[in-house]
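Dear Dr. H.,

I hope your travels went smoothly. While you were away I took the liberty of generating a structure for the chain from your last submission, since the lab meeting agenda had it listed for discussion. I wanted you to have the full record in hand beforehand rather than looking at slides cold. The sequence, exactly as received, is reproduced here:
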Amino acid sequence: MKMSYNGCGAIALYNALRLIGSKPDMGLIVTLIERYGLVLFGIFGTSPYRIRRIGSLLGAVTLPMKSFEEYEKAAEGNVSILCCWTGKPFRSTRHFTAIDGRGGRFVVYNRYNDLETPSEIDSIGELCDSRRFVSSYIIKAHQT
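The corresponding predicted structure, in token form, is as follows:
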């Protein structure tokens, strides 16, 4: 399978780790996702519920948010990963993005599969809503 088909989870994790100051290895991220995170051998991409484990294997603290409302509040001032349906839930694909909420506005990385530069938004609601929300994680550097 090509990264463009089901690689957004790996790309989001890579970008989030870079944003918190890590120097992630994309090959290792892909290997861990292939081992622990694929849904039906990758046909349905990366499991939105396995990012926590994979992030911790890579040395990051990944804090899952329980709801869209909790995530909206926590995203401001933090680096995060958001997974949401691209259209109607269960009738569209899911997409992962890394989001940097530390600068007043939100900078979204890999907002669309064919977008090569980050884009800025004023609110998380421009990307997702509670109906299309699947999962999200606040990403922090591992505390030693």
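Two observations you may find useful: Residues 8-19 form the longest helix (12 residues). The helical segments are 3-6, 8-19, 26-36, 51-57, 68-75.

With kind regards,
E. W.
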